[in-house]
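Q: Structure tokens for this one, please.
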Amino acid sequence: MSAVQPDSARSRWFHLYWAIPVALVVVAGVVLAARGIRSLPEVQSFMTDFPGQSRLPDDAPVGFPAWLAWQHGLNAFFMLFILRTGWTLHQAKRPDAFWTRKNDGRIRTKGAPVRIGIDTWLHIVIDTAWVLNGVLYLVLIVATGQWVRVVPLSWDVIPNAVSTAIQYASLQWPTENGWVNYNALQLISYFLVIFVAAPVAVLTGLRISPGFAARLRPLDKAFPLKTAKKLHFFTMVFFALFIVAHVTLVLATGAFRNLNHMYAARDAYDAVGFSVFAASVVLMVVAWVALKPAVIDWLAGLGGTVRRMPKR
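A: Here is the predicted structure, written as tokens:
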């Protein structure tokens, strides 16, 4: 067995080495194709008619309030650890420890005691904080009118999104002013994240969570547990891909100004927003390193009983 493992590892690395040049060739092909398409007179006329942004209502808010910057930072923090704990759970390994509720030493599901793996407990706790932050966000964007900036209000968002995609793919970035209005591709992406992916993540998470799964057994035929788990995982992958694309474009299309919008709630080209962003990254790294089993056990022990399993 031990003699096979190194060969298997080398095989995986070999495939990865091949994947990198293949990916570069694909990216280069996409860029060349987009530039060729963009040079066509018909496409140039199309992009003149649809430059990339849908018109907002005249009373749409301009800029970002401070609460939105705080919400964005908290969302990034929570999402980092949701992805970390979600990936750990996806590995389907036997938990190193179990958590039970403090009040009676167990969570009851139709009279049967249920233990929760410590990784599941941590995932649920972070999810809860993320959901509360999201609910507050939804309340505030409705109350302040910010919702009109993340909800498509006309069908011209589709051709504008196509125009924006061509501009991005050709590496000739669209002219942007996110302080006033998002481009159509951003608008669709943010709408999908906020109003589609997030609710799917919450609903599928509830469907598969300990305690709820047994109570929702009448849904097994219409919405099987296995289907819910797959959908929950694919939603996690969607979030991960969105974050990679989002961060890449934020940094590539004017990092200082974009980070000022997102982290300092100001329209400027200085390094204030970058400084806040850098501090938040340091905080996330510190939290990532500090979140060791002993710390997780202590936190979980505040509201329940943690029992570590003996190592095999």
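A few notes: The chain has a mean pLDDT of 86. The domain at 50-308 is CATH 1.20.950 (Fumarate Reductase Cytochrome B subunit).
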